Amino acid sequence: EDFLNLIFKAMMKDSLNSSHPVSSAVQSSEQIEEMFDALSYIKGASLLMMLKHYLTKDVFQAGIEVYLHNHKYGSAQSDDLWDSMNEITNGTLDVKKLMKTWILQKGFPLVTVVRQGKNISVQQEKFLYHVEIENWTSDSSYLWHIPLTYITSSCNFTHCTKAYLLDQKSGT
């Protein structure tokens, strides 16, 4: 419950146009200090939990093990974790491409779901809690790769969860 409260606080900050991406290039020590705030840490942890749920616990764990093995006694670049996850998924999913949409953009998406008979339509747009006129920028170019999981009436949640990757503005 404590972590969930932290997530909601981070989302509130991230829903402002004055937010910042989890990862970005920096030119000064002041910019480095600004990067290491609660938003970066809590959003980063939430994104790892999202990825773990989407890949499954075993696949995620294997990716972490590859990452740690490949970089023991050394340093790592920002893409090295995603490359390790790609190695484990054997090209079935471009984890780096998926995660870059989350860590290189500020904010998060609002997903609208509409059921029409047996079809489910989903649409994404950038969520803004409060528009600050002096910091406002257009958000039409924002696009996330959103892993959506669902079950059908013939399944239960633990045995046949299905997944859909929304990597466009809308999908069915």
TrEMBL record:
GO cellular component, one term: plasma membrane
Domain Peptidase M1 membrane alanine aminopeptidase: start-end pairs: 5-102
Annotated InterPro entries: Peptidase_M1_aminopeptidases, Peptidase_M1_dom, Peptidase_M4/M1_CTD_sf
Alphabetical GO biological process terms: peptide catabolic process; proteolysis; regulation of blood pressure
Single annotated GO MF: metalloaminopeptidase activity
Keyword list, A-Z: Aminopeptidase, Hydrolase, Protease
Stretches of the chain forming a coiled coil according to its record: none
Record carries keyword Protease: yes
Keyword Protease: yes
SUPFAM superfamilies, per database record: Metalloproteases ('zincins'), catalytic domain
PANTHER family: LEUCYL-CYSTINYL AMINOPEPTIDASE, PROTEASE M1 ZINC METALLOPROTEASE
Full protein name: LCAP aminopeptidase
